[in-house]
Design brief:
This protein is α+β, with helices and mostly antiparallel strands. It has a domain of 94 residues: Electron Transport, Fmn-binding Protein, Chain A (Pnp Oxidase, Chain A). Helix content is 17%, strand content 36%. The longest helix has 13 residues.
Length: 148
């Protein structure tokens, strides 16, 4: 399967602390959507979750996802990333701490964002997304249609 590239002019959506929506596939075939933190290593988009959450079960059984990011400064500018996902526990705790620094400005996920007593009670996993199709849109003119 060929991989797709993230367009340079949209990489900021992965570098800024913008919430992404990840779509996974339920056993019934119905989509399941969750807002997630994410980052980009220059090749893959990375997300993080815990074992046995619905999205983790879905991704383990059906390793395909779609990630949607929308620019909060211009909701008409967006990027959709369709791809495959590989889950790994290796480095997942460090990864969630990295995401907590990016999104919540705290040094650690457990005890900073999530209650400290949850540490060790769940197993973190990093989802490594390989893009196979990227759709992106940036309006050709500045649209000022948002009501203030």
């Amino acid at each position: 399967m060929m991989t797709a590239q993230i367009p340079d002019e949209f990489k900021d959506l992965l570098e800024r602390p913008i919430y992404a929506t990840v779509a996974t596939v339920m056993p019934s075939g119905q989509p399941q959507l969750t807002e997630v933190w994410c980052n980009y290593d220059g090749e893959h988009v990375l997300i993080n979750t815990a074992r046995n959450r619905q999205k983790e079960r879905n991704m383990s059984a059906r390793p395909m996802v779609t990630l949607m990011l929308r620019d909060p400064d211009n909701p008409y500018r967006w990027m959709e990333i369709r791809g495959t996902i590989e889950l790994t526990e290796e480095g997942a705790q460090d990864h969630i701490d990295e995401l907590a620094r990016k999104y919540a400005n705290v040094s650690k996920y457990y005890g900073g964002w999530s209650p400290a007593e949850m540490e060790g009670k769940e197993t973190r996993v990093t989802g490594i997304i390989t893009a196979v199709k990227v759709n992106a849109f940036n309006p050709p003119v500045k649209l000022d249609l948002i009501k203030k």
